[in-house]
Structure formats: C-alpha cells, structure tokens
Amino acid sequence: MKLETFIEVETRAARKKAREEGLAEGLKEGESRFAALVRIMMKDLREEDLLQAASDPEYRQKLYKEYGIL
Length: 70
Known about the structure:
Helix content is 83%, strand content 0%. The protein is rod-shaped and about 60 Å long. The protein has helices at 6-43, 47-55, 57-67.
C-alpha cells in the first residue's frame, strides 16, 4: 500500500473544501433564483403556475427564461 505524500493529502483536502464551497454557493444561488420567481409570480397572481414550477424542473426553467431570471 502506498503512503500518501503531504502534498497529495493537502491537495485532496483543498479540492474537497472547494467542492463543498461550490455546492453551498450553488445552493444559495438556486434558492435566491427560486425566491425571485416566487415573488414575481405571486405579484402576477400566478399561484397555479408557481405550484407547477415547484414540482416540475423543466417548467421552472421555462418560467426563469420568461421572467429573465438568470
């Protein structure tokens, strides 16, 4: 069995941390995006469409494009 070098261990740890930070940032951005969609659709009285968007990712993407939420 090969012993890992200090650099290999540190590199793996740095990659893991970067991946976790990226996932957290992506989640935060996704939540902000969906919150913006909710606010706009509630203002436009589109509750039924919002319910569908909550469970249908393809429909949600369509609405993001419709409202220009990037």
